[in-house]
Amino acid sequence: MVNDMDWKSIFGLPSLPKPSYIKAYEQTLLKKTSKAKPIRELDFLVLDTETTGLDVRKDYVLSYGSVLVSNNRMKISESKEYYMRPKKRSKEAVKVHGLIQVRPYVSREQLIRSFLEDASNKILVGHHLGFDLAMLEKLGKTLGLRKIKQPSLDTYELAVRLENGKYHDPHTIAAQDYSLDKLCERYKIALDDRHTAAGDALLTSQLLLKLLKVAERKGIKTFGDLMA
Questions:
Q1: How far apart are CA 126 and CA 221, in angstroms?
Q2: What is the pTM of this model?
């Protein structure tokens, strides 16, 4: 079977070397976190992307935001916010995200490099995180990034689990009750700077800390418990 890169050699095209920062990231994936490690000792990278839409195949990233959570505290000084130059003006994106003013843009490589360096040895967190990771994988694909593989935690799924039990019937869950807006309202988190990547990452960070307190009260105290 021909692997992902062999087709280039078949047609006489050289394979581009994988950037050193991607190799360094992949090396960090070899280190596994002990299941017995207390949650309070874990590092989380809480992230969000704002995009032109919800179709991974045709839409693209407009902005990215992240917040580091370590020792059960937000490290605001280490938060990140990046904007990418839009391929075209999207009326819907402007309407929802408000991304109409001129921003200092970064390249795709700058964004992916920063993300991978920050993500190394962290648990990735987001609300409906799978979509954000898929968009970042798409962004980094031509740079040599194949898959974002480290442990990840979706605050949507964590909230559902904590409020309904690990073995709940997903068909009984009203998804709208677990939107970021609804959860912030329920856990008394002020909805500031909503619908920007940095703002949503900050809100999700606050939600994560609230949920981890609930988890501790329910006997979920270690990495193994959290990821079970």
A1: 20
A2: 0.88
Tokens 């000084």 belong to residue: 77
pLDDT, tens digit, for every residue of 81-114? 999 988 765 555 555 455 555 568 999 999 999 9
Give bridge partners of residue 46 from the DSSP assignment.
Answer: 67, 125
Tell me, rounded to whole angstroms, the distance of Cα 87 from its chain centroid. Answer: 22
Give CA separation, 108 vs 28, 49, 117, 200, in Å: 22, 13, 14, 21
Above 80 in pLDDT, residue 228? yes
Say if residues 108 and 82 touch (Cβ distance below 8 Å).
no
Lookup: tokens for 183: 């959860």
DSSP per residue, 12-45: TPPPPPPPHHHHHHHHHTTSPPPTTSBGGG-EEE
Q: Roughly what angle, to the nearest 10 degrees, separates helices 108-119 and 129-140?
A: 130
Q: Is the pLDDT of residue 179 over 80?
A: yes
Over range 125-149, report the average pLDDT: 96
The CA distances from residue 62 to 50, 124, 132, 198, in Å, are: 6, 20, 12, 12
Distance (Å, rounded) from C-alpha 176 to C-alpha 106? 34
Which residue would you say has higher pLDDT here, 168 or 13? 168
